[in-house]
Amino acid sequence: MAPGLTAVGNMHGVRAGHTATLLPDGSVLVAGGNGSSGSPVSAELYDPRGGTWTPTQKMVEDRATHTATLLANGKVLVAGGTGSSGLVLASAELYDPGGGTWTKTGEMVNARAGQSATLLANGKVLVAGGAGCQAPRKRGCLTLEVTLVASAELYDPASGTWTATGDMIEDRTSHAATLLPGSKVLVVGGQSNAGTLASGELYDPGAGTWTKTADMSDARAGQSATLLANGKVLVAGGNSGAPASAELYDPISESWTAAPNMSGFRSGHTATLLPDGKLLVAGGKGSGGLILASSELYDPTRGTWTAAGHMAGGRVSHTATLLADGKVLVAGGYRTSSLVLDSADLYEPRQLLTHGFGTGRESLNCCPRPYD
Predict the structure, then answer these.
(1) Domains in the chain, number
(2) The dihedral sign for the CA sequence 158, 160, 163, 169
(3) Could you identify which of 41, 95, 220, 292 might form a hypothetical disulfide with 240, taking C-beta atoms 3.0 to 4.6 angstroms apart as the criterion?
(4) d(CA 236, CA 327)
(5) Rounded Cα gap, residues 192 and 295, in angstroms
(6) 51-71 pLDDT, tens per residue?
(7) Does a structural domain hold residue 221?
(8) What is the pLDDT, as a whole number, of residue 243?
């Protein structure tokens, strides 16, 4: 295995389409996902100090392709997703790290799976798009009744309730949502009922409205979008006409410029911003549907991509979490369309290997993508 990548202990369950959230104490909460027998209700904690996994209380409902958001109060909001019963879910629940418990919270206005979730500067959570019910329905709906939606809603941690906010301009799923400096949210790309999108739009929390911004050069779904230290957003890969391509969004001019291509086609990967400002991209699906074990680093100062070594094996629909010590925990995912993983890899940046590093910086997780 290449320097900087090591296998760590296996999870207690196999998972893909799960979520992983860095908690205030430095541990990582992994919840749900597609397992060996449907969508598991289980959850577990990774302790970076010992490199061990410990089961925690099960969720109230089993779910996969949901979202998980760390709230300002230290609790984790898990919302929506698809249950093993075949329902797309409207339900949401809260994990309390203090007691290791899950409790129900208010249901969303509309059931949805494969949506985005963004913690806003005001402490509320914006959930947008995804595959939802053809008409708003709190109880959820069967997958045959699902369509891609443009609706969005807000979760208020103070009241534990959801309220509808302005609809996006276009329906979309497998898109990317990024909180920009100044509190607006950039949503780009994704799959719509009309096809793969190149479009972008901005959500204004103050007005509760969406406005169009410049289109990307390439239509993409399953791409990553990461806010860099310089305030620009790097969008990379995805299912598109130029699947190795990357581009940069400038929030000030609301314009896109080309960035160097990655080494090859990559979709459904993870992207993690490292403490030194570089971006680690790992796994995903490559050319011909090959599930990748490779990773690479983008250096914003040089505008270059370099190889970052290989994981123990290929992964897609996995998670990547920046730990407090600057390492990255990569967990779960699919190795083939039918093989779901319980394994995990730890990426250690080279500066950690040679000089040591410590940071209290929070993780920037890339939401898991469905295998398809």
Answers:
(1) 1
(2) positive
(3) 220
(4) 22
(5) 29
(6) 999 999 999 999 999 999 999
(7) no
(8) 78
Q: Which contacts qualify for 168-171: CB closer than 8 Å, 24 or more apart?
A: 168/128, 168/129, 168/201, 168/203, 168/210, 169/199, 169/201, 169/210, 169/212, 170/194, 170/197, 170/199, 170/201, 171/129, 171/147
- Beta-carbon contacts of 220 under 8 Å, excluding residues fewer than 6 positions away, are 188, 189, 190, 196, 197, 198, 235, 237, 238, 239, 240
Taking the C-alpha atoms of residue 7 and residue 24, their distance in angstroms, rounded to an integer, is 24
Gap between the Cα atoms of 7 and 270, Å rounded = 17
- Reference 140, options 73, 92, 183; nearest CA is 92
Q: What is the DSSP letter of 189?
A: -
Q: Which residue has the tokens 């995804």?
A: 130
H/E segment holding residue 296: strand 294-299
Q: Does residue 11 belong to any structural domain of this protein?
A: yes
Residue 363 lies in a domain: yes
Q: What is the DSSP letter of 352?
A: H
* CA–CA–CA angle 369, 259, 326 (5° rounding): 60
Q: Which DSSP category does 287 fall into?
A: G
Residue 163 lies in a domain: no
pTM over 0.70: yes
C-alpha distances in Å from residue 58, one per residue of 43, 45, 46, 237, 248: 6, 12, 15, 34, 40
Contact 67, 80 (CB under 8 A): yes
Return the bridge partners of 317, or none: none
CATH number for the domain harbouring residue 275 = 2.120.10.80
**What residue type is 337 in one-letter code?**
S
The domain in which residue 347 lies consists of 1-18+268-372
Model confidence pLDDT, tens digit, residues 164-219: 999 999 999 999 999 999 999 999 999 999 999 999 999 999 999 999 999 999 99
Distance CA 113, CA 74 (A): 24
